[in-house]
Amino acid sequence: MSRPRFFPAPQSAGSDGFLGVGGRLTPEWLLDAYRHGIFPWPLGDGTLAWFSPDPRTVIEFADFHVPRRLRDTLRSKKFTVTFDQDFAGVIDGCATSQDRLEHTWITPEMRAAYLAMHQLGHAHSVEAWHEGRLAGGTYGLAVGGLFAAESMFFRVSDASKVALVTLVEHLQTRGYVLLDIQQMTANSRRFGATDLRRRDYLKRVAAAVDLPTTFR
């Protein structure tokens, strides 16, 4: 893997992944970060910080597990799922739903940066609709064959999970090879997420980001 243009080598970070603070949330900085296994994560006081944790959590397509009850929900067609129809609505839902309004890392600067990335075709959303209203969704950034999922939310039970299952199916169809979800949670573990050592993750990223893969 080549060295990042704007950052220290990700291998230099400790296990918590902290690389440093400052920089800019421009497309150039963000693409350089994601191409090298780095992502922004503002600190509690809003200071822009950059991370490359060890281990790193991914969803391996071959190991992805859909719980039986969720399969029933998918078959019921309770939700209508779309792509890139309301990116702003999804990122706002991720920032405000489930009591996140006062505890979100999606600062106004982060929101503006990812909206700009969406307008440039680098960031994408999956929306789950129920009775004509946005019920949940997920969004992330795509670079070659890498999709870095950033966050998800729901206003109706199972909406975010339906969006995730649809995203995984879509990425497989489009030829993606790596779905990064950054850190393990109890929910992602139920879907078969796994941890990779940073050195292994960085090798996977280097192989993925130059693939001629497109989201749409």
Description of the structure:
- With 216 residues, the protein is of the alpha+beta class.
- The chain folds into 2 domains: 10-54, Alpha-Beta Plaits; 57-208, Aminopeptidase (3-Layer(aba) Sandwich).
- Helix content is 33%, strand content 25%.
- The chain has helices at 27-35, 68-76, 87-96, 108-119, 159-174, 186-190, 198-208; strands at residues 18-21, 39-40, 49-51, 56-59, 80-83, 123-130, 133-143, 146-154, 178-182, 194-196.
- The strands form 2 sheets. It has a 7-stranded mixed beta sheet, with helices on both faces. It has a 3-stranded antiparallel beta sheet with strand order 1-3-2, covered by helices on one side.
- The model has no long low-confidence stretch (mean pLDDT 95).
Give a concise summary.
The chain is an alpha+beta fold and 216 residues long. It is built from 7 helices and 10 strands. α5 (159-174) links the parallel β8 and β9 (178-182).
Descriptive tags:
216 residues, alpha+beta, Alpha-Beta Plaits, Aminopeptidase, 2 domains, seven-stranded mixed sheet, 7 helices
